[in-house]
Amino acid sequence: MTDRILVTGSNGMLGGALVRRLAANGHKVRGLDLRATPGSHEMEECFVGDVRDESLMAKAVAGADAVVHCAAALPSYPDEQIRSVIVGGTRNVLEAAYRANVPRVVQISSTAVYGLPKLVPTPESHPRSPVDVYSGAKASAEEVGEEFRDRGQCLSILRPKTFLGPGRLGLFAMLFEWADEGRNFPVLGRGDVRIQMLDIEDLVDAVVLALRGPEHRVSGTFNIGAERFGTIREDFQAVLDAAGHGRRIVSLPAKPALTALRMLERARLSPVYGRLLHKLLADSYVSVDLAREQLGFRPQRSNQDAILRTFAWWREERDANQARGSGATSKDAWRQGALALTKAFF
Predict the structure, then answer these.
(1) Helix (H), strand (E) at residue 203
(2) For residues 178 and 247, what is the distance between their CA atoms, to the nearest angstrom?
(3) Cys-Cys with 234: which of 13, 82, 97, 230 at CB 3.0–4.6 Å?
(4) pTM for the whole thing?
(5) Could you give the angle at the alpha carbon of 191 between the alpha carbons of 188 and 194, nearest 5°?
(6) How far apart are CA 33 and CA 315, in angstroms?
(7) pLDDT of 324 strictly over 70
């Protein structure tokens, strides 16, 4: 594996986990984030700033053997900020790495680029079909990455499913909070759709494999997800069971609930965005065959392993986690808005 590695978004959930793993493996790690990174003693150097800052990126990549580009914007951000950070930021990072002759780059994308595919399991060959600003920005950022790959850059683009683990909150904080309070939890329709997720440590494994493998095998685009997963009802019920209150998953009529959630989203009274609503109504999982064959990827944890591990961490850090309500990052609990008022019915 390469020696000196720059991680953008080093204060994020993925970036932080990756910094810890790489440092533990004896590598010299640099971080770059908008905020100073806790535990920066694990790094050789920590740069505080924006991935869109050309001069900062030039300094950060100087002498690096690899770059892992994790920094991004969430779907909840303003549209122009999403495009600017994800597309413009990616171009700036890759341009800086290319000019500095960095031998290897790993770019973190998303299975969101497929939009709402009807083909499952979805292979990497499936067309990019973005359906909103976020998925469109991720798709455009991949096109930027492919430009640099065509210019000779060894570039791995990883498309992870939604990943979980200690440090992840976002919308999952709502499930964890309701379960801990002894409430039932609603799902759209019967909840029998199969939604693939991913444990953060398995994603870190995939990044490490992309950094370590021979160029002819790793320079490509790869889906990353759990190999063992069930239905939304099964996975969410596992959390309610772990909470120990005997509560159950409750089915809501899909069409009326979807209409209500759309109205709340438009009124900015709900954090549940449109693509997520549609994704919860149909099977959503990808093939990881290519990552298995090319990278040697072998995910160790199932959906339930990942979600229960995250719930256990949430309960241990309950007070601190409930205070993290800005929704600015995946490490924050997203504000429930009007959905919090529905607790009384469950």
Answers:
(1) helix 200-212
(2) 10
(3) 230
(4) 0.91
(5) 125
(6) 28
(7) no
